[in-house]
Design brief:
This protein has 239 residues and is mainly α. It has ten helices and no strands. It has one domain.
Amino acid sequence: MAAGPEVPRPALVGGPAGEGSATIHGVDLLETLPAFVLAVLLISASPGPAMALILRRAALRGLRGAVPTVLGLEAGLYVWALFAGAGFAALVAASEVAYLVLRIVGAAVLLVLGIKAFRAAWRGRGGGLAPEQAPPAGRRHWWGAFGEGVVVQLANPKAAVFMIAFYPQFVPADGPVFGTTAALGLLQISLETVLYLALAAGVARAGTWFRRPRIRARLEAVSGSVLVALGLRVALSGR
């Protein structure tokens, strides 16, 4: 029943019939990549917990101190991307109990970070450590900042909702869901890493000014206010 031109299409690929449809799906995915990249850039530039952590870290620790925070945030985001591809993120978003627990944990993490910033601001007002006396950022501090980024991202219930709402728009309906989602997630974290490191580098250039004791105390107070506000928003917001 099929006409001549349509029958040999799979044979031209040199493999089973399924490879022809896979090729078509690959073309569809490539056509949607520009829209995906633009959406990722716009979403990454929006303010949120990740942006607040990166700005604070870059201002107080410089670019080198901000790198583990950025990598931790992106590692946590990629875990959510893999969860979304495997269907776990959809279960979290659909379960009232799981979503509530994750929301409480996320709010608690942000509130703890905000309170720590307030305490640092209070110590700074009382004549705390000057920038040159601050402890060096060693391996323990590196992994601490990395873990902080991972926890903040994994404890964000909005990340799960975002993944299951955003990624399916770019995954072919009949294509490999997990593999495509993993590839798109890798592209997203690569773009965000470059963007956030460039932002951290720009902030770090003014690091000497930010690390003056009085300015540092004010920055910690502002950072604490932002983190506490974000924590309260996560705790009180719905889906």
